[in-house]
Amino acid sequence: MTRRKLLYSLLGTTGLSLAYPCYVEPRRLEMTQPRVRLPRSSFTTPVRLLQMSDLHASPYVSIRMIDRAVSLGLQQKPDLICVTGDFITGRDSFDPLAYARTLRRLSAHAPTFAVLGNHDGGSWVAARGGYTDHRVVERILEDSGIDLMHNRSARVEVRGQNVTLIGVGDLWSDEIDAARAFAGASPGAPTVLMAHNPDSKEMLERRPWDLMLSGHTHGGQVILPFQGPSYAPVRDKRYVAGLKPWNSRQIHVTRGVGNLHGVRFRCRPEVSLLVLE
């Protein structure tokens, strides 16, 4: 949906001016703190996991806005940080050095891991004028000290407790390699899966994971009265925002920090602190 269609739809339904959805709500960051009970966990103390997603550095989402979101997240004193993709929106619309400085604040505080989204380079976004590969975003993450989990696993010790992290490539870019991602996974430990698009769950159903962290949806971005989300690019509309069960597992979809086209309505940008128990 184009920005114009979003705005016309918003105006026709609510009669509100454009000031709030274009200039106020996209900057009204909200902190959420869902509690997650992991079935295979033997945690003696809760683990505080900060999830950020869909930063979308662009003319509509400034590095200053992203820095504010980082500050809000770090105020929660997380033990572990996961960023679930879509660091950028398009080509050459951000300062990579300034971006890396901001993201470096995360890795300086706690172990920080990331996966890529459909806008971060690759086949899907290349067909729409974006980068053909991930080199720009990979360089930013490397300069930031953030560990890119592109179809691989890592064992992380947090407060003396082991957590297995799995990261996969983007679904729309056809970059999920489940066999490679789970090849080195530690059996028995609680497993957190990072996948940008929540629709990835079916492809990964037979793999061992307890909690999936996703973004991609922006929470719907524009929530119209009596109509629901105007922007929810997923097949399974149950997983647009929040913590939801799926079979014997759980999926958390954050509304994300940034946006497309500079508009949000009844869907504030979000930073999430998941308390793992």
What does this 3D model show about the protein?
- Strand 8 (161-167), helix 7 and strand 9 (191-194) form a beta-alpha-beta unit.
- The protein is α/β, with parallel strands linked by helices and 277 residues long.
- The strands form three sheets. Strands 1, 2, 3, 4, 5, 6 and 15 form a seven-stranded mixed β-sheet that branches.
- Helix 3 (63-74) packs parallel to helix 4 (96-109) and helix 4 (96-109) packs across helix 6.
- The chain is globular.
- The mean pLDDT is 92.
- It has helices spanning 3-14, 19-24, 63-74, 96-109, 123-126, 135-144, 178-182, and strands spanning 30-32, 35-36, 47-52, 80-84, 112-115, 147-148, 152-158, 161-167, 191-194, 211-214, 223-224, 228-229, 242-246, 249-253, 270-276.
- The chain contains seven helices and 15 strands.
Which key phrases capture this entry?
single chain; 277 residues; alpha/beta; 7-stranded mixed sheet; 6-stranded mixed sheet; 7 helices; 15 strands
Question: What is the fold's blueprint, element by element?
Answer:
Layout: H1 3-14, H2 19-24, E1 30-32, E2 35-36, E3 47-52, H3 63-74, E4 80-84, H4 96-109, E5 112-115, H5 123-126, H6 135-144, E6 147-148, E7 152-158, E8 161-167, H7 178-182, E9 191-194, E10 211-214, E11 223-224, E12 228-229, E13 242-246, E14 249-253, E15 270-276
Parallel strand pairs: 1-15, 2-15, 3-4, 4-5, 5-6, 8-9, 9-10, 10-14
Antiparallel strand pairs: 3-15, 7-8, 11-12, 13-14
Helix pairs in contact: 3-4, 4-6
